[in-house]
Amino acid sequence: MISTSNIIASISDVPREWVFEYYLNLKEKLHGQDVKMLSVFSSKDKVPSMFIYFDVESNTYKFKDFSSGYQGDHVALVMHMFNYSIRWRAVYKIIEDYEDYLNTHKSFEKVEYKHYDKYKVTDFQIRSWNNLDADYWKKYMISSKMLSEHNVHPLDYFVMSKTEDDILSEIKFEKPYVYGYFRNDGELYKIYMPKNADKKFIKVQNYIQGMDQLKYDKKYLIIVSSLKDLMAFKALGIKNIEVIAPDSENSMIPKNIIENLKSKYEKILVLFDNDEPGLNSMIKYNTRYDLNYINLNLEKDLSDSIKRYGLDIIRDELFNLIKNAL
Fold first, then answer.
1. What is the rounded (10 degree) CA torsion for 69, 74, 76, 82?
2. What are the boundaries of each domain within the chain?
3. Which class does domain 208-326 fall in?
């Protein structure tokens, strides 16, 4: 006999925590903490690149997978896991599976959320450039003038702090090859640590890189994957093109900004990394915004390609790719 007490009328009746715990087979209950795990979308993932995190603004759990570029809420997770193209199909599956779960387990125990204060950058000190810095950036043909134009400064140290149970915890990072990325108004928006194997970037605030430097006096715009690639592209000296970069390849530039940029340029192209996440992100820009993309099939990214092959070879290669994409 089928119990009518476990019939679910709406997706809002399904706890979001259950969706993540059930489909990802999590070994711990979600109670406000963040979870880092191997990507369920890539069998090649050797280092955890998928994050289940509590989003304070929406007061609920979301996910972000850096391996595939997928991100979103609990329904989006199921959509991508089961290759549904329509959201209601994922909703139907979640409701059906939750009903089956309740028929076996009777109920789902939600755990009261605990507030977890995350580490944030609270202090930093800019230092002078040195020979180590010069050697690093010169490999990518990025000059001191270019770094200055884009407000990149070496940091002597930075401090990350959090308060939990009225106890202040601080961590001070004091290493070579640490750089602060700043907006024109002097606000720090990102820290770049190229020699740090575990975490190369620390995001401080949202910012579309290169927007402050746009003159809107060129015919074309190219969206690249990082500030380093942006500066490397400028070093090529290809005329009639301006460049910007989102926070990361996985961060889509909002539609209203893309539409505004379309009104200012004859054509916008996308040039992201030469790997699976980069290609997936370029396809998303093409599907969502109808932007053509370029795949520079050499090294992982543009700056690494310049480092290996030099400006002249990459300039010629890119010029032909851009010409074909316009």
1. 100
2. 9-105, 117-206, 208-326
3. alpha beta
